[in-house]
């Protein structure tokens, strides 16, 4: 298994924004037919890491390899052209545009020749509706509908459907299940497993231990921009993973704290403070 | 990755192509059209006895609309993409003076003057676009700065070259016929505008790049993540706007045989009012070319044709103010209508 060459590999990658160092010495590998789960607390640098893989950011230092060859993606288009499709944590859809145009944004199907190429609306709408329905969103039947009228989860599903459609080799999902209902989240997990079976490499970010355990083959935990743990499926228990996801603090301890608090405060849950 | 052009005939669902009243109502152009219709009917009633519907009555505001319209549509593109360009008020005189100085004073061929004027426009647009995309300064401030900078430079250079802030220029016959002639009372600019409207409609609503313009105004970060060349596209839109303004300047100087270096502040308001009355959302992401066309026509009737009616001339600004307010309120309603609309489910 590990003999296979990774599709994507980072070696000792650093990323800083001016004086702010966000990623330190990151080394990860993703292989075809494998799901890498990126775990970590808020602000750990997960989104920054996947934006680097997606061509949005360029590494400040370190090596970026695709199929063993060094690559640099100057912009997201170049990463997409190499078959890397990403669903970013926020946005990804345009409320005042139709489902069909949203789905094909940046990769529009066209008809006609030369300067008279025009957007093939019928084809775009048909494919978009088909793909979104495959995600379990059967309420969307009209590709002309504006995305602003959809629910948050439906929009998220649209963004995921789009990445699944365009992701030829690598699928990167940044908290794809955050806005989704139980059924739709299950759909996404199934799609991740399907993509894996088809031989895609998947990078999956989540804050939910159950979701991570359901699909992950390989786990990497980020704490303050560095890889704090790197292990394979079955090497750690659910509790250990949960602790790592909480940034190294013990979940059992956190839960115990809450219980003590509730006992001393008439059963009220502590207020989150900044 | 995607099959960019397919030759299979994709099945077109009859529902999505057929005419429907609700889809017409959802379009931001429909509000602009209704506004135009109301103003036109009212002016026809009050102007019946005063030649509003006569040839000079109609051509007055249509001729005016064509010059504003050539500029307003690209201004609208910028607004859809989330930006504002108010430097048009200085680009227009810069263009007219360029033609007058190059062709009038220095006797160069008209083509040289036209190319020079359009290049001046393209350059100003590039500067606008470059600064907006490479700094955090809002486009309103950037183009406000270029508005004054270009206006000042135009005055200075006019004095420097011809020692005058105004100039006259008579274009050769073929150029006059093509760019500044009259057909049944309509200036050549009207036909140029009509042609450009077709090109602009194709660009914004049919070409794949049209989607990108909306995406810029909808969510620029997502557009960048989707691989859209945000910086290039934005600079391109600023250049289109200034070049179109320069072209309007060329048409103007050849039509009226005169050029002035005074900044045209009224043009700034007129283009922006037309665009907003035309149903473009101030916040970007939504709008149509045909809406802007109706916005321009409405504004032109109210400002130019009021003399052909019994309505007091002084009321024209009041009407425009009220219209603008109604338009902004309506635009919000139209947007809500559009987002909540879904095709009636087939039983
Ligand atoms: N463009 C930027 N400029 C400066 N700092 C940034 C930038 N992008 C991210 N950061 C910083 O990098 C750190 C990591 O952010 P990132 O979004 O990668 O976290 P995350 O692990 O995805 O968190 P979450 O779980 O909340 O999504 C944060 O402290 C953030 O402020
Ligand atoms: Mg994140």
From TrEMBL, chain A:
<dbReference type="GO" id="GO:0016887">
    <property type="term" value="F:ATP hydrolysis activity"/>
</dbReference>
<keyword id="KW-0547">Nucleotide-binding</keyword>
<dbReference type="Pfam" id="PF00005">
    <property type="entry name" value="ABC_tran"/>
</dbReference>
<protein>
    <submittedName>
        <fullName>Sugar ABC transporter ATP-binding protein</fullName>
    </submittedName>
</protein>
<dbReference type="InterPro" id="IPR027417">
    <property type="entry name" value="P-loop_NTPase"/>
</dbReference>
<dbReference type="InterPro" id="IPR050107">
    <property type="entry name" value="ABC_carbohydrate_import_ATPase"/>
</dbReference>
<keyword id="KW-0067">ATP-binding</keyword>
<dbReference type="InterPro" id="IPR003593">
    <property type="entry name" value="AAA+_ATPase"/>
</dbReference>
<feature type="domain" description="ABC transporter">
    <location>
        <begin position="8"/>
        <end position="249"/>
    </location>
</feature>
<dbReference type="GO" id="GO:0005524">
    <property type="term" value="F:ATP binding"/>
</dbReference>
<dbReference type="InterPro" id="IPR003439">
    <property type="entry name" value="ABC_transporter-like_ATP-bd"/>
</dbReference>
């Amino acid at each position: 298994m590990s003999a296979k060459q990774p599709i994507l590999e980072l070696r000792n990658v650093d990323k800083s924004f001016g004086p702010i160092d966000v990623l330190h010495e990151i080394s990860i590998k993703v292989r075809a037919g494998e799901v890498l789960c990126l775990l970590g607390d808020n602000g750990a640098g997960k989104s920054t890491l996947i934006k680097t893989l997606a061509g949005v950011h360029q590494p400040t230092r370190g090596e970026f390899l695709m199929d063993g060859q060094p690559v640099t993606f100057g912009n997201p288009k170049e990463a997409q052209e190499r078959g890397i499709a990403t669903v970013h944590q926020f946005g990804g859809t345009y409320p005042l545009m139709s489902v069909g145009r949203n789905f094909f944004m940046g990769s529009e199907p066209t008809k006609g020749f030369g300067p008279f190429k025009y957007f093939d609306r019928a084809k775009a709408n048909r494919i978009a509706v088909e793909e979104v329905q495959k995600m379990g969103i059967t309420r969307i039947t009209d590709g002309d509908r504006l995305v602003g009228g959809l629910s948050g989860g439906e929009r998220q599903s649209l963004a995921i459907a789009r990445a699944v459609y365009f992701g030829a080799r690598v699928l990167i999902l940044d908290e794809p299940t955050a806005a989704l209902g139980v059924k739709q989240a299950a759909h996404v997990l199934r799609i991740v497993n399907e993509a894996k079976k088809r031989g895609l490499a998947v990078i999956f970010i989540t804050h939910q231990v159950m979701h991570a355990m359901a699909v992950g083959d390989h786990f990497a935990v980020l704490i303050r921009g560095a890889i704090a743990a790197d292990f394979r499926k079955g090497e750690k228990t659910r509790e250990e993973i949960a602790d790592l996801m909480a940034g190294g603090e013990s979940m059992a301890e956190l839960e115990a704290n809450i219980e003590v608090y509730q006992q001393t405060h008439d059963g009220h849950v502590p207020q989150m403070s900044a | 990755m995607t099959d960019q052009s397919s030759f299979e005939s994709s099945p077109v669902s009859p529902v999505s192509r057929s005419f429907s009243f609700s889809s017409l109502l959802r379009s931001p152009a429909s509000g602009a059209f209704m506004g135009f219709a109301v103003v036109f009917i009212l002016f026809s009633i009050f102007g019946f006895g005063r030649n509003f519907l006569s040839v000079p009555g109609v051509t007055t505001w249509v001729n005016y609309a064509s010059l504003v319209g050539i500029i307003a549509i690209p201004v609208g593109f910028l607004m859809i993409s989330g930006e504002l360009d108010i430097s048009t008020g200085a680009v227009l005189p810069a263009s007219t003076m360029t033609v007058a100085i190059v062709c009038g004073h220095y006797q160069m061929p008209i083509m040289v003057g036209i190319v020079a004027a359009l290049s001046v426009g393209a350059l100003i647009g590039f500067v606008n676009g470059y600064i907006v995309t490479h700094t955090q300064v809002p486009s309103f401030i950037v183009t406000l700065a270029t508005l004054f900078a270009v206006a000042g430079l135009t005055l200075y250079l006019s004095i420097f070259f011809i020692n005058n802030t105004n100039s006259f220029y008579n274009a050769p016959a073929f150029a006059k016929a093509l760019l500044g002639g009259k057909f049944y009372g309509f200036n050549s600019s009207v036909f140029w505008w009509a042609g450009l409207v077709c090109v602009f409609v194709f660009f914004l609503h049919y070409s794949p790049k049209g989607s990108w313009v909306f995406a810029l105004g909808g969510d620029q970060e997502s557009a960048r993540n989707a691989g859209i060349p945000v910086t290039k596209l934005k600079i391109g839109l600023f250049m289109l706007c200034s070049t179109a303004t320069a072209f309007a300047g060329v048409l103007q100087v050849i039509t009226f045989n005169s050029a002035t270096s005074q900044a045209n502040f009224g043009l700034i308001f007129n283009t922006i009012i037309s665009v907003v009355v035309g149903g473009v959302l101030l916040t970007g992401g939504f709008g149509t070319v045909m809406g802007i066309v109706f916005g321009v026509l409405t504004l032109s009737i109210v400002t130019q044709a009021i003399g052909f009616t019994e309505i007091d001339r002084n009321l024209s600004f009041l009407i425009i103010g009220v219209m603008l307010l109604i338009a902004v309120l309506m635009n919000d309603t139209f947007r809500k209508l559009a987002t909540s609309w879904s095709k009636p489910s087939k039983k």
